[in-house]
């Protein structure tokens, strides 16, 4: 298939053509296209300034930080993927992502809760391992350094926001329900019973975003993996099958992290001597 492009000897403002497999050109984005993608961000910054919302700094910092981080990652990837030990570096990168994910969840919670870091590391590492085993074990994607990092990144990237949301919901539930925890303890409830009584509310509210995204797949949204495969020329059915695999792994990862983190935090709301933990009490500060 021929791609429209500028005459020989010149390149378009937004992309340039390079030969790909089968002689077809691959489009390499240039900085003008990247800058054009900032148009919506510029629009929302203008609206935020006009409405005095005070969110301009957060948006600018997030956009700038993402650019710096992605450029740094690109430089590192270019170095390690060309190395003779690329697979070892890729595995180390995935392990590093799990470690960073654990640190991020811990920091978002804002206070040291017993066992939370270990549990978070275990559930993120476990779900990542399962995702990698299914993806490469069934030959969905050939195992190489790039695909290892990509699949690992997808899994960890969905685990972190889910774990953070579950943690915040659970902490809010325990603080708002401090009196209820004390009442349950007075009635003779064991810590495990309190978890089964209180955790469902936090878990249900935490899974809503991921469940809703899953429900609308194919109706009002085409997922990134499927879109990329279709643009790459993969048949629609094959693209759908791969997307289903990715979607189910992501849903399982997100909900696993939520369930485990919520249960852990609700359990820490009860001390070993069967009292409501200090952090749940009114006026307690993280």
Helix-strand pattern, N to C? EEHHHHHHHHHH
Give the end-to-end Cα distance, rounded to a whole number of Å.
59 Å
Structural class: mainly alpha
Tell me the number of structural domains.
2
Task: Characterize the largest beta sheet: strand count, sense, and whether it forms a barrel.
Answer: 2 strands, antiparallel
Helical fraction equals: 55-70%
Approximately what portion of the residues adopt beta-strand conformation?
Answer: under 5%
- The shape, in one word, is globular
What can you tell me about this protein's structure?
The chain is mainly alpha-helical and 286 residues long. It folds into two domains: 11-80, no CATH class; 85-280, no CATH class. The chain contains ten helices and two strands; from the N terminus they run ββαααααααααα. It has helices spanning 31-36, 39-51, 56-80, 86-109, 116-137, 145-176, 178-186, 191-215, 224-231, 236-268; strands spanning 15-19, 25-29. It has a two-stranded antiparallel ribbon. A hairpin with a 5-residue loop joins strand 1 (15-19) and strand 2. Helix 4 packs parallel to helix 6 (145-176) and helix 6 (145-176) crosses helix 8. The longest helix has 33 residues, at 236-268. The radius of gyration is 23 Å and the shape is globular. The termini are far apart.
């Amino acid at each position: 298939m021929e791609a429209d492009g500028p005459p020989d000897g010149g390149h378009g403002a937004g992309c340039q053509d390079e030969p790909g497999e089968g002689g077809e050109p691959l489009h390499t984005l240039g900085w003008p296209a990247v800058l054009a993608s900032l148009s919506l961000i510029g629009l929302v910054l203008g609206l935020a300034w006009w409405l005095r919302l005070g969110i301009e700094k957060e948006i600018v910092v997030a956009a700038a930080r993402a650019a710096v981080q992605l450029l740094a990652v690109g430089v590192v990837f270019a170095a390690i993927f060309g190395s003779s030990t690329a697979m070892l570096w890729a595995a180390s990168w995935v392990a590093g992502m799990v470690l960073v994910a654990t640190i991020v969840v811990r920091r978002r919670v804002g206070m040291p809760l017993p066992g939370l870091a270990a549990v978070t590391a275990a559930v993120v590492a476990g779900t990542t391992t399962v995702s990698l085993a299914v993806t490469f074990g069934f030959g969905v994607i050939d195992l190489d350094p790039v695909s290892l990092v990509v699949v690992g990144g997808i899994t960890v990237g969905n685990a972190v926001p889910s774990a953070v949301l579950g943690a915040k919901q659970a902490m809010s539930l325990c603080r708002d329900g401090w009196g209820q925890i004390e009442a349950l303890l007075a009635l003779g409830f064991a810590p495990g019973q309190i978890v089964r009584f209180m955790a469902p509310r936090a878990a249900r509210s935490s899974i809503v975003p991921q469940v809703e995204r899953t429900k609308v797949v194919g109706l009002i949204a085409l997922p990134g993996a499927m879109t990329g495969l279709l643009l790459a020329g993969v048949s629609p059915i094959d693209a759908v099958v791969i997307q289903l695999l990715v979607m189910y792994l992501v849903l399982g990862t997100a909900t696993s992290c939520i369930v485990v983190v919520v249960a852990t935090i609700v359990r820490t709301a009860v001390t070993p001597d069967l009292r409501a933990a200090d952090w749940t009490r009114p006026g307690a500060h993280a």
